[in-house]
Amino acid sequence: MDRVETRELSYFVTLAEELHFGRAADRLGMAQPPLSRAISRLERRIGVQLFDRSTRAVTLTPAGQVFLTESRKALAAVDTAVRRAQRAGHVDRLILATRPGTASGLLPAMIREYRKQPGAAEVKVVFTTDQIGALRTGAADIGLACGTTDTEGFETILLAEEKSVALLPPHHRLAGQAAVTLEDLARDPEFVHQPPLETLDHIVESVALGRITVVVGEGVTNRLGHTAVAVPVIDSPPISVLLAWPRGIPFEARNAFVKTAQKLVTAPRNGLGHAAVNG
């Protein structure tokens, strides 16, 4: 079987999304007849019918539904390969993905120490709620994430661990307690087990308004002001901050940054074990 071209995959995915040859052709910037011929050639090449065509509708066959899922993966993999190749061609820049508020005490220290090295690359910090996604697609070289994040396929090192605290509005029935348990919090209808995918400021604002209560790392307490109260959660495990990067992707600047981070977190009395965590 001849290898399918990415152009053909793009044609197929566009038609599968539109289910209309005219609209798909418009999206692709081409005429309808060449698109129809290209799809027919693709079906002959792989030996299965991908679309059911009638005068009224175009629908995906079961084989087409499977091919759509796999085609999207293939196109995403090509895009990732391009981005990673482009990143490899810019060895003077290191892109670090982090969620706003994650390791806000540790991250500046790591960057400062790394910049002291001769030939250190420029570190560009990008803020996102999907750090691991940015690493998977090649949009970032390294990222900060919480230990609860799925890091399969990545190398990681532990940077810090924090005791868990519950963020509560000042008027909350538990706000005056010295400590609470997860069972105490579970009785609260506003309690969420995982922080929403928002910035720390948005989370704190939602807590202050009484919309949610949530468990986070104790490092956020220095950013609360009077809008929310942090109460220790005695039976919740510590929240971990990880430095993560794709396994098997060589990059000297990233490796040097990782070594800098390792030295900082293992140095005695470095004071960096309490980085602000909200990953």
From TrEMBL:
The keyword Transcription is annotated on this UniProt entry: yes
SUPFAM superfamilies found in the cross-reference section: Periplasmic binding protein-like II, Winged helix' DNA-binding domain
Source taxon at top rank: Bacteria
Gene3D superfamilies per record: Periplasmic binding protein-like II, Winged helix-like DNA-binding domain superfamily/Winged helix DNA-binding domain
Transcription regulation among keywords: yes
A Pfam family it matches: HTH_1
Keywords: DNA-binding, Transcription, Transcription regulation
Family matches, as PROSITE patterns: HTH_LYSR
HTH lysR-type domain mapped to chain residues: 4-61
Entry's family note: Belongs to the LysR transcriptional regulatory family.
Name of the protein in question: LysR family transcriptional regulator
Source species: Kibdelosporangium philippinense
Native organism taxonomy: Bacteria, Bacillati, Actinomycetota, Actinomycetes, Pseudonocardiales
